[in-house]
Amino acid sequence: MKIGDKLWLAESRRNETIVSEVEIATVGKKYFTLTNDPRKKYSIERMVLETQYNWSGRFYNTHQEYLDSTEISALYFEIKKWFDGYTCQRLNLDQLRQIKHIVTPI
Asked: How far apart are CA 106 and CA 98, in angstroms?
């Protein structure tokens, strides 16, 4: 990470996520700042805005990395629904064995 590098920032605002390309203004040992708002400090380790409450945005190296992250979340949510409550009972033993085979590390 160096001054002038471009990152993609995904910020949550109410019920939507705003994604924008930003440029690094300064880089220290723990924090970096952006050219569009040099007053805010972002954690290099966590790649989020450091506040006392919570983080409001996350950085990605490329726009595709952001898209992949949102797709992973959506797929996880969809798959998770199959294993919540009584929905799992709709899967037969063979289907469950196939799923176990796919998700078990080699």
From this structure: 14
Is the four-CA dihedral 35, 54, 9, 46 of positive or negative sign? positive
Of 53, 52, 50, which is closest to residue 39 (Cα–Cα)? 50
- What pTM does this model have? 0.72
Is residue 32 within 8 A of residue 22, CB to CB? The reply is no
Contact at 8 Å (CB) between 6 and 21? yes
> Over the stretch 3-60, which tens digit does the pLDDT of each residue have?
999 999 998 877 888 899 999 999 999 999 999 888 888 888 888 776 666 666 889 9
